[in-house]
Design goal:
The structure holds two protein chains of two kinds. By secondary structure, chain A is an all-beta fold. In chain A, 0% of the residues lie in helices and 50% in strands. Classes of the chains: A mainly beta, B mainly beta.
Chain lengths: 113, 112
């Protein structure tokens, strides 16, 4: 099973600022997935990050707002840019290697004030 | 991807009773069906999963059943305990390296 370290675990940010969330995996994985979980809701996929290429974003999410880096096969970052209170959510990274199980990081609880 | 329908949205059971949560899907390519438990302030924790080549899988008090023909799968928790209280999510996936699609979640309350 993969172990994912995600940080920060929580943050309170001023509107208009940006926050970068990091995820480190203890094994090499081809794809990493970033999800958003709004209060009381289920998980919604933001984008898929593949090492060496630009991330693929889902409908309703754009690169300017959620830039993603994937510099190697064990690490990825998600930035939430120009934040507003509507961005207050839990952000989660996930891996699902071929033939393996799908695991999540501990999540980043973001509050924008 | 196509949605996963999860029912019920809330479930209250007496301690010691069983709890059953059901999910249905429509994408025939789905072959991986995990269940996650999410406690307040934490990320989803994988508790059990099943692949389409089996119909049932059990791990102590937790079991998952899959009916691929009818396209539904269920989580069964027996002898429930207060610490089972959490939000449970089902999900479906196809091959690895593709994202999961989640149900809307079930808030389970086990009453002592």
């Amino acid at each position: 099973s993969a172990v994912i370290s995600q940080k920060p675990s929580r943050d309170i940010c001023q509107r208009g600022t940006s926050l970068t969330i990091q995820c480190q995996v203890d094994s090499q994985v081809t794809m990493m997935f970033w999800y958003r979980q709004q209060p009381g809701q289920s998980l919604t996929l933001i984008a898929t990050a593949n090492q060496g290429s630009e991330a693929t974003y889902e409908s309703g999410f754009v690169i300017d707002k959620f830039p993603i880096s994937r510099p190697n096969l064990t690490f990825s970052t998600l930035t939430v840019s120009n934040m507003s209170p509507e961005d207050s959510s839990i952000y989660l990274c996930s891996v699902f290697p071929t033939g393996g199980e799908a695991f999540f990081g501990q999540g980043t609880r973001l509050t924008v004030v | 991807g196509e949605n996963v329908e999860q029912h019920p949205s809330t479930l209250s059971v007496q301690e010691g009773d069983s709890a059953v949560i059901k999910c249905t899907y429509s994408d025939s390519a789905s072959n991986y069906f995990p269940w996650y438990k999410q406690e307040l302030g934490k990320g989803p924790q994988l508790i059990i999963d099943i692949r389409s080549n089996v119909g049932e899988k059990k791990d102590q008090r937790i079991a998952v059943t899959l009916n691929k023909t009818a396209k539904h799968f269920s989580l069964h928790i027996t002898e429930t305990q207060p610490e089972d209280s959490a939000v449970y999510f089902c999900a479906r996936g196809s091959s690895g390296n593709t994202p999961l699609v989640f149900g809307k979640g079930t808030r389970l309350s086990v009453i002592a």
